[in-house]
């Protein structure tokens, strides 16, 4: 048990007054947790901004390796995060291809086809009416290059996320 000294309060009232005085004193060390928390918040915000805003814009076009002897086709745009409906789909040409089949699906699920088009070039520009098919969410798109005999030469797949316009 502690022996009271002349500085120690002896009555409950004195003890209570001393506790109140201690609580009212500015705490010099209390700023350190706030500064550390602010530093962690800035670091986490920077990392999130990098991964969700900066990284998709500087990413290289996606390629998909396919099985069955079909080579990969490089899809250039769109990919990453978009603020509005894509106006243009673009991919790299494949030697010997006479046509390309473009399929756009909603939600990453290949069962809900939004757009299906057979083209002879490496670009698909959407009409204004087609742009209305796109609502905020996840979309995937594939391009299959076909030879003059209809055989598949190459295939590529990419995805993009459409945020509210």
In this structure, how is the largest beta sheet organized?
Answer: 6 strands, mixed
Task: Identify low-pLDDT runs.
Answer: 57-67
Alpha carbon gap, first and last residue: 71 Å
Strand content: 25-35%
Mean pLDDT: 78
Structural class: alpha+beta
CATH homologous superfamily grouping of the largest domain: Immunoglobulins
| Series of secondary-structure elements, N-terminal to C-terminal | HHEEEEEEEEHEE
Characterization of the model:
The protein is an alpha+beta fold and 165 residues long. The protein has two domains: 12-58; 62-162, Immunoglobulin-like. The chain contains three helices and ten strands. It has helices spanning 12-24, 31-58, 128-131, and strands spanning 62-63, 71-72, 74-77, 80-82, 88-91, 99-106, 113-119, 123-125, 137-146, 152-162. The strands form two sheets. Strands 2, 4, 6, 7, 9 and 10 form a six-stranded mixed β-sheet that branches. It has a four-stranded antiparallel β-sheet with strand order 1-3-5-8, with no helix packed on it. Strand 6 and strand 7 (113-119) form a beta hairpin. The relative contact order is 0.16. Residues 57-67 have low confidence and may be disordered.
